[in-house]
Amino acid sequence: MTENGPSPREVAREALNRLQSLADPVKARGAERYFKETVKCFGVRAPEIHALAAGLYGRIKGNWTADRAVELCDILFPRPELEAKAVGALILDRFNKDLGPGFFAKAKGWLAGDLLDNWASVDTFCTQTMGAFLERRPAFVERIKAWSFHRNRWVKRASLVSFIKPAKKAVR
After folding, report:
1. Do residues 147 and 156 make contact, with C-beta atoms less than 8 angstroms apart?
2. What are the domain boundaries of the chain?
3. Start-to-end C-alpha separation, the chain
4. Cα–Cα distance for residue pair 4/65, rounded to 1 Å
5. Exposed, middle or buried: residue 151 (CB in 10 Å: 0-12, 13-18, 19+)?
6. Tens-binned pLDDT, residue by residue, of the chain (172 aa)
7. Which fold has domain 1-98?
8. C-alpha distances in angstroms, 84 versus 135, 144, 151, 156, 167?
9. Rounded CA separation 135/151 (Å)
10. In sequence order, which residues have a C-beta less than 8 Å from that of residue 144 and are 6 or more positions away?
11. Torsion sign, CA atoms 78, 83, 89, 95
């Protein structure tokens, strides 16, 4: 796989521009009131977020490595808007088969650093990407279970919701 195509910064800029163009202030206020914590939103509906992430992935597929997708998340996760975090998480999930062992510490850093700082962001990221990571790397199961004792509530939540995808497969 080559490292061609648009840079993570360019993709982030494109994502943010598109989210701003789709923004609906009325929907944003409604979504922001829905959360107990302070959350900032563009007011973009979930199907539009998924379509945006899929379109951006189409531009980078075959050119990016998982490391570049992680770089994209390093740019989008610190953003205050819920939808920006979601786009980053959805694109990263498309690279989950290629995430190496070092990704575990990166994920914990995002969570402990409050870059994923609400239940929706944590759940989007953990049910998909972290769940798939645990399925491929069961050696990390005990380490993620230990997160349940972490002082940060988002790390604690991640310790639980990361097992949703593996648990669903075990039930089948």
Report:
1. yes
2. 1-98, 100-172
3. 34
4. 10
5. exposed
6. 446 889 999 999 999 999 999 999 999 999 999 888 889 999 999 999 999 999 999 999 999 999 999 999 999 999 999 999 999 999 999 999 999 999 999 999 999 999 999 999 999 999 999 999 999 999 999 999 999 999 999 999 999 999 998 887 764 4
7. Leucine-rich Repeat Variant (1.25.10)
8. 26, 25, 26, 23, 28
9. 25
10. 104, 130, 134, 158, 159, 162, 163
11. negative
CB-based contacts of 3, cutoff 8 Å, min separation 6: 63, 64, 65, 68
For the chain, what is the largest distance between any 2 Cα atoms, rounded to a whole number of angstroms? 45
**Cβ atoms within 10 A of the Cβ of 97, count?**
9
